[in-house]
Amino acid sequence: MADLQEPLVRPKRKKVLVDYLVKFRWILVIFVVLPISALIYFNIYLGDVWSAMKSEKRRQKEHDDNVQKVVKRLKQRNPKKDGLVCTARKPWIAVGMRNVDYKRARHFEVDLSAFRNILEIDRERMVAKVEPLVNMGQITRATCPMNLALAVVAELDDLTVGGLINGYGIEGSSHLYGLFSDTVVAVEVVLADGRVVRATKDNEYSDLFYGIPWSQGTLGFLVSAEIKLIPIKEYMRLTYTPVKGSLKEIAQGYCDSFAPRDGDPAKVPDFVEGMVYTENEGVMMTGVYASKEEAKKKGNKINCVGWWFKPWFYQHAQTALKKGEFVEYIPTREYYHRHTRCLYWEGKLILPFGDQFWFRFLLGWLMPPKVSLLKATQGESIRNYYHDNHVIQDMLVPLYKVGDALEFVHKEMEVYPLWLCPHRLYKLPVKTMVYPEPGFEHHHRQGDTSHAQMFTDVGVYYAPGAVLRGEEFNGALAVHRLEQWLIENHSYQPQYAVSELNEKDFWRMFDASHYEHCRQKYGAVGTFMSVYYKSKKGRKTEKEVQEAEAAILEPAYADEA
Q: Which terms are listed as keywords in the entry (predicted)?
């Protein structure tokens, strides 16, 4: 513990009006956001039920008609007069914390709101064909009764297929299957010129197939995807194991929980995640699918964590620190969405008493508030407050560097709990925006194979310790330092988060070669904004839009000449 650098000492911060607006924001959340969220969720549920009642043939027909509407709309655009193309979705609807500032400037909108249907569940091919606005709650509601699931099911109900493919998605099974985009079999994309293509890893559009992940929708409009299904069982047998010691020792305990040093595949669980509660305490959870018969055997404990009055999952897991290792059985679908009700642990900041029994029992059924509504009801001052005094970041780091990442976060941000989730990063036929460390396969490190390097998502979500103590904290500077650490350690920052990267550093973190190849080949230059421009923090003025268009159009025309 002597080697662990203590958090930076900071002076006290003087409170201003926005501090009190944030402190008492729970009033607005309880009386406005939660009731409206419940109505929206119910309306979405009715829409999902109505969609499921339609025949596959009818759903496919509606899909084809909607695709043609997108094609027609794209062809209406005048490149000389209209702005760059983007969806018509409102800026605050995105689940991520990054505000969609690029929509504040001139742009040409295309409405994709109709693409929210499950088109087909193919049991023979073990593939689900879905539209981009299908969310995780919708897909598990359809597949779990069939004892099927997507190979990677992101935890929060509201996360959509389109966002998880165009951006980033992970779950406790990613140590087996990779990121969400790695489980995609085919994508249907409307290109800038209105062509509709189906891209797979081995057809003529294979370069587009590998270019879509992490591109943030800047190569074309994703209108459907075929995603790998796996067989599942009714329950998850979950083991909670406390780990105590230094952050490096916690990191090693986390590695050992799913990547056995002897390489025995029989010891690898179906699911794994870790939560680090302090600089010397964490709990590792490993899950294995179990049948209904096994779960209901005498002596086994079944915990239906999805009930509205149940303790929030991260607090339930924390009890292992006091009572030691224990095992329980959780219904599989409820396990998939275990973090939804409390939005990991962000719910504690939104509703400080939301974890209390009286609130869970009386109003817990209204949880969670929709993130989009939380964003829609915050003014500019609250928005800036969260950017400066709050952290929502994911650090995708090589497994062997997790201990270093934990120590960095402790020193710079002192945010707890921290979330740990491993994922494979595959060595692909082309060098995509994210890629393993060159030569990783020669080091034979724990968790690595010849075809994939094991990474870990270190999830940093909460108010920093300095903010909780009333001290000054520079959120922009802290994120900048985090990004520089990631660049120096061959690590990545998912683009849903607020970023302080300039363009040079953005392309130091990510590889541009294949992405730019796809931009040029498929006509995205001059039609869709670049991924950096789309991720860039801050408002985009009309002048910036024009300069960005000119900067990427000139090289394209030079190549044609």
A: Membrane, Oxidoreductase, Transmembrane, Transmembrane helix
CB 385 within 8 A of CB 16: no
Give the pLDDT mean for 529-548. 69
Omega into 145 within 30° of 0, i.e. cis?
Answer: no
How many CB atoms within 10 Å of residue 557? 10
State the pLDDT confidence band at 263, using cuts at 50, 70 and 90: confident
Instruction: Count the alpha carbons within 13 Å of 440 in the hemisphere toward its beta carbon.
Output: 23
- CB within 8 Å of 201: residues ≥ 6 apart: 209, 210, 429
Helix axes of 402-412 and 475-488: crossing angle, nearest 10 degrees? 160
% of the chain surpassing 70 pLDDT: 91
- What is the arithmetic mean of pLDDT over 292-311? 96
3-state secondary structure of 551: helix
- Of the candidates 403, 425, 417, the residue with the CA atom closest to the CA atom of residue 492: 425
Which tops the pLDDT comparison, 557 or 130?
130
Domain boundaries, the chain: 58-231, 235-338, 384-500
Q: How many CB atoms lie within 10 A of CB 169?
A: 27
**Does position 481 have pLDDT exceeding 60, yes or no?**
yes
Pair of tokens at residue 2? 């002597």
Three-state secondary-structure class, residue 270:
coil
Q: Is the peptide bond before 438 cis (omega within 30 degrees of 0)?
A: no
Task: Tell me the CATH architecture of domain 58-231.
Answer: 2-Layer Sandwich (3.30)
Q: Is 126 left (phi over 0), alpha (psi -120 to 50) or beta?
A: left
For residues 388 and 104, the answer to whether their CB atoms sit within 8 Å is no
What CATH code would you report for 384-500?
A: 3.30.70
* CB neighbourhood size of 301 (10 A): 10
